[in-house]
Amino acid sequence: MSNFRFKALEIAQSRQALSVPPPAERVTEYYGSYTFNNEVMRSLLSPEAYLKITQAIDTGGKIDRDIADEVANAMKAWATAKGATHYTHWFQPLTGATAEKHDAFFDVTMDGKAIEKFKGGALVQQEPDASSFPSGGLRNTFEARGYTGWDPSSPAFLMDNGAGGKTLCIPSVFISYTGEALDYKTPLLKALLEVDKAATAVCQYFDRNVTKVTPTLGVEQEYFVVDKALFYARPDLVMAGRSVFGHSPARGQQLEDHYFGTIPPRVNAYMVDFEFEAMKLGMPVRTRHNEVAPGQFEVAPTFEEVNLAIDHNALLMDLMEKVAEKHNFKVLFHEKPFAGINGSGKHNNWSLGTNTGVNLLAPSSKPKESLRFLTFLVNVVKAVHDHADLLRASIASAGNEYRLGANEAPPAIVSVFLGESLTKALEDLETKSEVIVNKGDNVYYKLGINRIPSLLRDNTDRNRTSPFAFTGNKFEFRAVGGGANSASTMTVLNTIVAAQLATFKQELDARLANGEKKELAIVEILKEYYKSSKRILFEGNGYSDEWVEEAAKRGLSNIKSTPEALGVYLKPESLELFERVGVLSHAEVESRYEIELEKYIKKVQIESRVVGDLAMNHIVSTALKYLNKLAETAKALVDLGMTDEAEPIKDLIKEISARVIAIKKNVEAMTETRKKANNLTDTAEMAKLYATEVKDFFDVIRYEVDKLELIIDDEDWPLVKYRELLFVK
User: Fold this and answer.
1) For all residues of the chain together, what is the average pLDDT?
2) Among residues 83, 232, 670, 682, which one has the fewest Cβ atoms lying within 10 Å of its Cβ?
3) For this chain's UniProt record, which GO biological process terms are given (predicted)?
């Protein structure tokens, strides 16, 4: 019997839900209490400094050093009053995790006295060692200098260290000594600035009062939780973040009873706890529920400005992991931690809003507003159509490769869902030059039950199988992986939309210069855009094989492997786009390509080693011990003259032996193939070999191991089983 497994189960089954008292009676009493927000700045800064800092945030303008000094003094006073002892520039390097280097708020004078110190220079800039962060060849590993720079558009916040004291975290960009971006935030900020410029310029045709357009984002985060003891009893979860072996339990998600079901008490206590902490940090998390798979859940916030939303999501993931420890849980953000059940996505709900309070993707029945809506809608569709492969590249990762197209998540084929009413509106636009959009404001369901109020119907249904679906007043990009940083996708999406809107403006200005009437010129351009882009629109089941065939007929890409998808970044048109819009230089794009390939190789390499280790040191060794037991039993039966009774046991011995041989043979072949890949000097070729030849062994070995799980005595099986991991109580 595997004592470790059963001891872990005993510990897990003894856990009880923790009591989580609220910080105060009302959310309004503690919401944002750990953030250096506008309210705090207004109370601590001089009116002049407050005005300059808010103007700089709104316009992206430069902040003078004297203003930075005043802000730094105010931050220090606020943070230390709340128990902070250190500060850090909190940034998002291309490792995929957040990073921080803590410095104390004090310094020592020449006479040995300690003084509190935090000046504007320390606020604006810090110097972490850049040599150990991935740079994709931008820097030599011995060149250590890199800089973090304060991003004032994202509020500083306090992070409780858990062991006494707090740290003031200052959201920052991260650049190399020579000025190239080494993080997710820098290109994102550039893309957001460009889409603001381009969208504002287009809005001017409809409303001169629009002077700013803000992209907004709501990030729905899916995740699994498992008991901490069970987590550490599974080396694959510890090392790779996913289970490389595990037979599907008799009951998985087929009863469809977990989705929106009653939240298990321990999980609910955990959710409540991290939500309290998130609220203190100004993160507007509002929704919690069970997801489709057992052990899977979701948290979703209110919409925010894109940069802030992505900061908050990265911070939320970190916070969820820390709070999980308190509740004896481990959080799994991996896109596919368990085979045979749904994986986890990070649904990115994106829209555009003006400073006049208008959602540019909200339908309207008023002619002028309707034309504006269709202008932005069609331009977004065309941007996605023209750069579908680049969007596919932005979601490519080792984890998402397991999830995309697995009859639970959008396929690797990028398509757009608009719904029946909007599709008809665009068809009318193309064929009749008519601009009619029905908002559906007064469409109600009549249920025939008097005590149930009438239910308002949205103007379009949702299509959960579409990667890029219009959902009423926004687009939902469902293909982003659960463990990803959404900045990569949002950088690409906002870049391609900015480029497309700029092209639209050029074409419209040319028509207006020729004397065409504005409204007619807009309609004619939109008709051309729709006609050239409508092949990407799909209303049906994106999970079906029929759609794969149909997409191929339409000429839509179906890029399945991560290395192939990442290769799109290096296409001349991609390099030209990023440089033309001013988001990434050629060198920065190429470096990101190299970094993502290296991450892919390392993650598949780790999984391969885990597969080999578990197969040989856990499974095969257990199988051989069980074979010995069976052989002794069979021999005893034969010695007693019970030859017929020994036959089924002999059959089991033969089957187990055959599976052990298959496992050993394939592990050895996989190891040799991995060595072959590691000897390659070309990163792209190495990634390709890992994606095909090395990774191809995973399912072959898994099949044999999972079959052995059904044969070997439950008390001898060394790994915690799916039925024990998934059903959290």
Assistant:
1) 90
2) 682
3) glutamine biosynthetic process
Is 80 exceeded by the pLDDT of residue 115?
no
Is residue 425 helix, strand or coil? Answer: helix
Question: Which among 430, 501, 519 has a CA at the least distance from the CA of 205?
Answer: 519
Q: Is the pLDDT of residue 292 over 80?
A: yes
Beta strands in 359-401 (DSSP E): none
Helix axes 518-533, 420-432, angle to 10 degrees: 120
Give the DSSP per-residue string, 66-82.
Answer: HHHHHHHHHHHHHHHHT
Strand 157-160, strand 285-290: pairing = unpaired
Q: Report how far residue 169's alpha carbon sits from residue 314's, in angstroms, rounded to the nearest whole number.
A: 13
Task: Using alpha carbons, list the distances in angstroms from residue 514 to 507, 510, 526, 529, 671.
Answer: 11, 7, 18, 20, 68
| Separation between Cα atoms, residue 403 and residue 410, nearest integer Å | 9
Of residues 294, 535, 529, 542, the one with CA closest to residue 404: 542
CATH class assigned to 31-182: alpha beta
Residues 6+ apart with CB under 8 A from 490: 188, 191, 215, 217, 306, 310, 348, 350
Parse the chain into domains and list their residue ranges: 31-182, 192-244+255-584, 599-727
**Integer Cα distance of 338 and 342 in angstroms:** 8
Look at 206-215, 338-347, 443-452 and tell me which has the smallest mean pLDDT: 443-452
Q: What does DSSP say about strands 296-301 and 346-354: parallel, antiparallel, or unpaired?
A: unpaired
Nearest to 342 by CA among 413, 403, 421, 387: 403
How many residues are there in the chain? 729
Q: What does the block give as tokens for 471?
A: 């959902």
In 3D space, the residue among 606, 633, 636 whose CA is nearest the CA of residue 698 turns out to be 606
The DSSP element (H or E) to which 262 belongs, if any, is: none
Q: Is the pLDDT of residue 260 over 70?
A: yes
Q: What span, in angstroms and rounded, lies between the C-alpha atoms of 287 and 290?
A: 10
List pLDDT tens digits, range 432-462.
776 665 554 444 444 444 555 544 445 555 6
pLDDT tens readout for residues 155-195: 999 998 877 789 999 999 999 888 899 999 999 999 999 99
In a 3-state reduction of DSSP, which class is residue 445?
strand
Q: Is the pTM of this model over 0.90?
A: yes
Joined together, the tokens standing for residue 287 give 């929704």
Same fold, 31-182 and 192-244+255-584: no
Cβ(426)–Cβ(378) under 8 Å?
yes
Task: Using the structure block, give the residue that is written with the tokens 């293909």.
Answer: 479
- The matching CATH number, chosen from 3.30.200.20, 3.10.129.10, 3.40.50.2300, 3.30.590.10, for 192-244+255-584 is 3.30.590.10
β-bridge partners, 150: 172
Say if residue 118's pLDDT is above 50: yes
Cβ atoms 436, 364 nearer than 8 A: no
The CATH class of 599-727 is mainly alpha
Separation between Cα atoms, residue 90 and residue 99, nearest integer Å: 6
Q: Which residues contact 219 (CB under 8 A, 6 or more apart)?
A: 300, 301, 309, 310, 312, 313, 346, 347, 348, 349, 486
User: Three-state DSSP class for 257?
Assistant: coil
The candidate with the shortest Cα–Cα distance to 218, out of 473, 577, 591, 537, is: 473
In the chain, the largest separation of any two C-alpha atoms, in whole Å, equals: 105
Q: Residues 6 or more apart from 12 whose CB is under 8 A from it?
A: 227, 229, 230, 724
| 84 alpha carbon, distance to own chain's centre | 30
